[in-house]
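Fold it.
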Amino acid sequence: MSTKFFNNASGNTLFEKLKGIANEMLSFNRFLAVVGFFRSSGYFKLRKELGDISDIRILIGINVDDIFRKNDLGWEMLEAPDKAKELYNEQFKKDVCEAGYTKEIEDGILQMCKDLADGRLQLRIHSTKNLHAKFYLCLPQNHTTNSDGWVIMGSSNISDSGLGTTAAPRYELNVAMRDYDDVHYCHEQFEQLWEEGIPLSVDEVERYTSQTYLGYQPTPYEIYIKVLIETFGDQIEDDFTIQLPDGVKELKYQKDAVTQGYQMLMQHNGLFLSDVVGLGKTMIATMIAKRFIEANGKNSKILVVYPPALEENWKETFKLFGIKKKAQFITNGSLSKVLEGRDQYFDKEEFDLIIVDEAHQFRSDNSNRYDELQKICKSPCLNPGLLKSYRKKVMLLSATPLNNRPEDLLNQLLLFQDALRCTIDGITNLKLFFTPLIQDYNKLMSERDKRDVTNEVDRIYAQIRDKVIDKVTIRRTRTNITNDPDYKRDLDNQGIIFPNILPPNELKYELDASLTTSFIGTLTALTDEKTDAHITYARYRAVEFLKPEFREKYKNASVIGQSLASIYRTHMVKRLESSFFAFKKSLHTLLRITEDMIGMFDENKVIIAPELNIKDMQFKGMDLNEIMEYIINKGYSKEDFLYEAEDFDPKFYEMLQNDRSVLQSLCNAWDNILEDPKLDKFAESLELFLDKSINPERKLVIFSESVDTVNYLYDFLTKQKGRTDVLQVSASNRSQLFGTIKANFDANLTKDKQEDKYSIIITSDVLAEGVNLHRSNVIVNYDSPWNASRLMQRIGRVNRIGSVAENIHNFMFYPSPQGDSQIQLYKNALIKLQGFHSAYGEDAQIYSREEIVKEFRLFDSNVKDIVDKKIALLRELRNLFNNDREWYHKIKALPLKSRVIRNSTKNAGTSIIYVSTRIKSEFYIVKNGKTPVPTDFLSAISFLRAKPEEQPAPFDQAEEHFAHVNAAVSVFESDLQQQTDVNSIKAVNLDKTAQTADAFLRKIKQICDDATLRSHCSILRNYIKQGTFAKLPRTLKTISAEYKNDRIKIKNDTYILQHRIGELVEEYHNSNNSSNENEVVGTPSIIISETFI
């Protein structure tokens, strides 16, 4: 069937129709068109097919409906020709910006200008609101009833998609007619409309072109500065000032952190504020919060989360800045109050900004409080505010966000990022990025006993630093700040001095021959399973030795038992290393609970209740019948917890008896050991610690991981040494002693409020966070903490703004070689701290003189690491902004797609391309014949850096330039598609737990008919695919395990699943949830490109 209609299906496009007419018309002299919009790219392709016709007239109808809507303009504004031309200019520049990046398209624009200059092409703008027609006339010089002529009418414009030369984003339909009357009528209409149009001259089009990347050739220096403006421009131009309260010093490095932090908050919905301890993170965070309130509006609400000891500090600081009434404050163990609406806390949706102090305490995603915090952080904002955002903003404060392993960082990132909707440039899937690094790290840690793995751990953390940390973290060391001339000058003017942290000073003590024998014998009994007289820690392994029919109720019973034994074994060695006193107490405790377990066997009443502390009940003197009655009253039946002796492997009772025998022997031996060479060394060094030549205020801070050791040292100093100036602080008395601690150890207190009643403070890590102790500059680590980053926190108590001493002295008791050979404490601490240095940088050795404090050599000798480098770039751009504002703004205004060709023997054949959308930006390095490789900002800058006097090379000499740029854009678009389209996220991109959860939800949807259940499954699947919540997929995996892919059971349990899945939706989802706002991604824009020849 023949038809006059055609669409843009392959082989039947407008382009092919016009091409056919041009080839077949005997006398084709005029091409007249009325279009809604006009693309130069489309014109060039069509122009080649039109041949040498002498009259090309195109009437362009401005899309006034869109213009009125977007600009809120009145109709009269289009009456002025200049205004209509200005609007066309904007459309023209947008066309050039969005057109494909090819030489052909650029030639098309130049051909259009040439045709205009030659008079072959005429353009007019029609600004009548009612002009929606699109038609094309192909005519001879004189159109008569006896000559050829065509009119095509329909929906297609002169553009790639309208012509059908690329895949059209929407359906097009056109009709082609050649009846004289039809063609003549349309010709008359065209001439009438043409007379109403506003002419566009060649000068005007050339002026429009000059405002695009084709009209100006920037220098290499201007391209370099353009990238700096894209990165730092908001900070440089940000003239935000904050009225500081009386008594608060205005520090330039803090002000810059406020600006940078606010920009990160806007771009990524969160950030790590991780300046080294003592630089004023609380103050910086409060200033960012104040700025956020001013930007988002007076109804903004803030939730501040902190360890209990820091409450007063936060409330005082918020009050000082006048924003306390905008905030609610909650300890990090009480987040359920927000979720449950208790104690007058707002609903989680009412908060707009979440501030989490000591955020490293949320580094494990297995804890309930992590799940609680994630639910709060990921809930949508009830009020989008002036910023029009439903995404909460999250500030994570910690000088030590990395404590043990790479997962620490991933879990904290997921408090403000979704795993598969990551806003960090170059990372489309956080879990896919971290998983291989975590696997490599775990493998290295399993090999650390056999070889030195430090350098390989370094490389892992270097990748994390370059790809992730750098983008969402403010982290400056004191060296970074003093290396910057502006910051240094500011500090000098205000009389602020940062003390030097001296390398760790080892305190060595010797064991005599007899004590060495006892020490090694004890370690053997504690750790060597090959000897007969060793402790098996049977008390902690009861479930492991239940007979199979009883053991089934405890999942992984063997693994649990062996893990508990291993943990307690390490604990005993650590107690031995902490102090002989603490170790003796632990020996007697282990003997007592072992004898209590034997007593249960003797009475044939063995209680196993992991949820309850049976050992503590026995210690308090409760007999077995009382304990059983207590447990039953808790709702348990005897079958849940009570076993007889014959329910266990007979070997277990023998192990208990063996442990009792070994422990009795050890207790007797250690009860007779009265000497303590470690304590003697401490006592001997006390005079040094308090020597005024190194300790001007003669204040001393002593840390131990063991509360028993703290008590032991306190008794020694007060009872044996008779000192009355010793303060002992524990978790139980810290709050009561807060004022006393501040008066005696806080240098920020005014002189008239300072006291000197106490000179020595002895504490556990309860004082490692959130308190100023910097009237002291000497700390003693009486033992090594298992978590080595605690050492940074400890030093931070005395290394703070306001310290008066020149140096910080850090004295260390290291574990003995014998003990360390069993628990690897020294090596673990060194590896973990070295990893931290690699990831975040540090300006001092914390634990050992073996630590390599990272210095990343960059462009000049004053720059020590990547933070210094960024500060230097910021300073360079600020100098241009301050000294030549006109040139700065000219470079800032460089149009998209600006490019330059440079001569370089070293980098010949290489291109740097910067591509961006509203939600993602990326630099690429492209070399001939190779796939584009994403690179970080600093690496790109190393290529782009140029001097003002360098001139560009001729553009036509870089044949590979277009191919390089388009290859980079193609990779960018592919990555962006995976990142932004939830439906494109494949199961292989999910971790195994998420895959199981997603498959289970998908199966429920396939099997069950209930519409609500199916809808709930879809809601949860979106969260799984986006990686929004950590606990949700694990919960679903647990439920899935109950069904074991049994389709019949799933079908039969529809009602049960309705309830369980519904509960999860209620727990994690909000009906107004806009946390996954449908941002307009936009077409990828080429910001700049640079090719070396």
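The longest strand covers residues 1085-1092.
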